[in-house]
């Protein structure tokens, strides 16, 4: 794409719109180059010599007489496609209980990168016992996919409420080469202390390109009653008293 003939007045701003429409889940790279020349065609008085600053020389175009013909601004652009947001996964647990739930996430459209994939195998599976935020998925050849994942919260307040109550560990990874779908299976632990409803998002990024977001909804329902207090009446219009002890679980 090339656009020329734009006139700029002194101190005028130039806005360059960038449109990103990725066709595949991979990293896209481009460079925006702005070349500024004088409208009258004259050169700038700055002359490029062998003793000039090399960094400055890379940002100018030089005429035959060694003077500066144009000035360059170079802006590299890196584009990471993001998959459409998936349906929410609901994790429901009664307050003061502990829940372990397997959550299966499908990463659709994963690109294998520059290494060609073999035709013989159609899937690959790797089990792990160690938690990691950079899981690798391989098909047995030199083609390896690495993923980064984290649990993000909508606000610091929600983080303070959920972070100590939620645990997440990747337990299994599978790569279907034909459909280009990677399946990540997480073991999510939820141990709420009181009724609540909060949301978080699992964000998964492939090092070869692509970003996936999976909303999680954590719901803690009312806990079971601790006990039943029976108060026996001593007569009409007479006060009955019963005593019981309360123990704090946080001290």
UniProtKB/TrEMBL annotation:
GO biological process assignments: sperm axoneme assembly
Residue ranges of coiled coil: none
- Pfam families in UniProt: Ig_CFAP47 (PF26579)
Q: Where is the CFAP47-like immunoglobulin-like domain?
A: 82-221
Gene Ontology cellular component terms for the protein in this record? cilium
Segments for region (Disordered): 118-140
Q: Which residues lie in Polar residues bias regions?
A: 131-140
Domain of life from the UniProt record: Eukaryota
**Name of the protein described by the UniProt record:** CFA47 protein
Q: Which organism is it from?
A: Certhia familiaris (Eurasian treecreeper)
């Amino acid at each position: 794409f090339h656009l020329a003939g734009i006139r700029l007045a002194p101190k005028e701003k130039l806005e360059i719109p960038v449109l990103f429409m990725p066709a595949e889940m991979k990293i896209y790279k481009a460079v925006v180059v702005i070349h500024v020349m004088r409208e009258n065609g004259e050169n700038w008085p700055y002359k490029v010599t062998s003793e000039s600053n090399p960094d400055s020389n890379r940002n100018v175009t030089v005429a035959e007489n060694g003077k500066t013909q144009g000035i360059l601004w170079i802006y590299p652009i890196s584009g990471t496609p993001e998959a459409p947001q998936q349906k929410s996964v609901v994790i429901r647990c009664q307050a003061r209980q502990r829940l372990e739930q397997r959550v299966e996430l499908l990463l659709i459209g994963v690109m294998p990168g520059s290494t060609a994939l073999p035709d013989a195998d159609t899937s690959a599976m790797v089990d792990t016992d160690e938690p990691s935020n950079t899981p690798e998925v391989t098909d047995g050849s030199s083609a390896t996919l690495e993923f980064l994942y984290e649990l993000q919260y909508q606000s610091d307040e929600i983080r303070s409420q959920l972070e100590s109550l939620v645990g997440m560990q990747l337990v299994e990874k599978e790569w279907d080469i034909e459909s280009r779908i990677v399946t990540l299976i997480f073991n999510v632990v939820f141990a709420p202390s009181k009724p609540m409803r909060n949301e978080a998002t699992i964000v998964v990024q492939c090092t070869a390109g692509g970003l996936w977001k999976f909303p999680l909804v954590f719901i803690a329902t009312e806990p079971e009653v601790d006990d039943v207090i029976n108060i026996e009446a001593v007569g009409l219009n007479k006060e009955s008293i019963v005593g019981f002890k309360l123990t704090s679980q946080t001290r």
